[in-house]
Amino acid sequence: MTAENLSALALSLRVAVVATLLNAAIGIPLAYVLARRRFRGRGLLDLLVTLPLVLPPTVTGYYLIVLLGRRGWLGGPIYGLTGWSITFTWYAAVVAATIMALPLLVRTARAAIESVDRDLEKAAFTLGRSEWRTALEVTLPLARNGILAGLVLAFARALGEFGATLMLAGNIPGRTTTVPLAIYTSVQTGETGDALVLVAMLTVLSCVVLIAAARLGARAT
Amino acid sequence: MTAARLDVSIRTTLPGFTLDVAWTAGDGVAVLFGPSGAGKTLTLQCLAGLIRPERGRIVVDGRVFFDSATGTDLRPQERRVGYVFQGYALFPHLTVLDNVAFGLRDRPRAERSGRATTVIERLGLGGLEGRYPRELSGGQRQRVALARALAIDPALLLLDEPLSALDRPTRESLRDELRAVLTDWGTAAVVVTHDFTEAYRLADRIVVYREGRVIQSAPRSELLWQPASESVARIMGTRNVLHGTVLKATPDRIQLRWRGQTLEAVNSPSRAYLPAPSSPIAFFIRPEYVRLIRKDRGAPDPNHHMNLMSGTVVSQTDFGATWTLAIRLDEPGEPAQGAYDLEVEVPRLVHEILELDRDRRWQLSIHRGSIHVLPA
After folding, report:
1. How far is A150 from chain B (nearest CA, A)?
2. Phi, psi of B65 (to 5 degrees)
3. Which CATH number is correct for A3-220, 3.40.50.300, 1.10.220.110, 1.20.1250.20, 1.10.3720.10?
4. ipTM for the complex shown
5. For FRET with B328, which of A23, A113, A193, B302 sits at 20 to 30 Å CA-CA?
6. Kind of pairing, strands B72-73 and B261-266?
7. B91–A138 CB contact, under 8 Å
8. Segment holding B189, helix H or strand E
9. A127 and B92 in contact by Cβ < 8 A?
10. Residues B233-257: pLDDT tens digits?
11. Do the Cβ atoms of B77 and A120 come within 8 Å?
């Protein structure tokens, strides 16, 4: 394997792992809140989280630029203050992968949390547990397999993210070129041989992920 | 009556349903009895603090759990109420020991397992500490749920249809066991059931629910013999609920006309009911309190037998230990209950001795104390 391909693979794994960790940190509480709380703006939150699942990834990427780019709503002030922008860094690839993977985790985890018998939570309340402790000791452990399945899917999505990553992080060899981008570049430049190895690796990985998710899903019920 | 340990008055509205109840209970077991959808479980959830009623007041042993007037509303965590859910709601990922010890988290470790083990032993669950709920029988699960609720030394124990998840033989033996446990622990308890036998076996006091309201609250024997109204009698599954016309009512007797007969009933000494003559009146006759008179005894003595009538057995049903006879009176006109006027229940032995299989025509007598008038 070429040095470029190796570095693309290393970057992809790093991005996917960090994005999955971020997904766990944001997505599990989000799934819990959407499953168990009724509040104003719940529908809107649900819509925002789910949107990247149906929007073309380039559109999601465009919104991320509007938000985080050098002249973006959030990115602009940051650039003005520090002279630094997230665009065209590997952090941008992480952000893109996280946002694109989030709906997969949230939807799977939410369904798992909703399937936990509410009487179990009520029982925990009468036995002195706060809602927070009940979530940690009862709800989340019982939804564990569904949450793990969601994380596996999120990891796979993060690993394969292309469109939004290209928009926000670009395709800079050695810095932001992840495996899907490397495959695209290889095909564009006619170096299909190089790409084949990466294609095979992503295919095998995806199969493993699907099988793992299916097994976890089966145990969850 | 002892001072009320439990004073409940709540009103809350759900889409298409209003719960508006008030009742009190002393020591022992109060059973909320009534058809499903009457608001019994909703009441339990309000008692536990899982649902907040719109208005009302809940006081347990002098502690105010809820009072809409002062804005008091203790969280379920603060109420110390043991709740046994209908499906038991045992934590499937925890062992029996961890389930029972779940409510003891704030206690020191040693005390915690000591207390859990004591409760487990006392409920006859010794040896099952390491099992998971899925590895237990229905009866064992019920006892684990009870143990978990009792472990926290609750101020009040709530049980929602505690026996409905069990098959019939288990249910009957556990019913008496549950009664023994409740008496043994002496914790004030509220039990929800829609089964009258269960209610009667478990209760000291029965609170009858119907469509979100309490239609009677009374000690269980009073309820059995003096239902407050026809609808209470019907919810209890009382048989031979009949309608007649008042002839004369005095504080100790009521004369009434029914199916061409003049019947005499005892008026309730504790709450005499004095309807006006010729007003309609509902009453019931327990099937096991109707006497069949043998013909070979000669003419019945009117001083001994009262409310005499004659009729024909139109059908009979074998219930094993007893037989139920459907009797149609020798009177023209429509029978009171479809094809027959009265249901009569006789023990199997009596059925054999009287040769009821061969003889269809009988004289009946009903003691005036066995005709129970139902206030309108």
Report:
1. 20
2. -80, -40
3. 1.10.3720.10
4. 0.84
5. B302
6. unpaired
7. yes
8. strand B189-193
9. no
10. 988 889 999 999 999 998 888 999 9
11. no
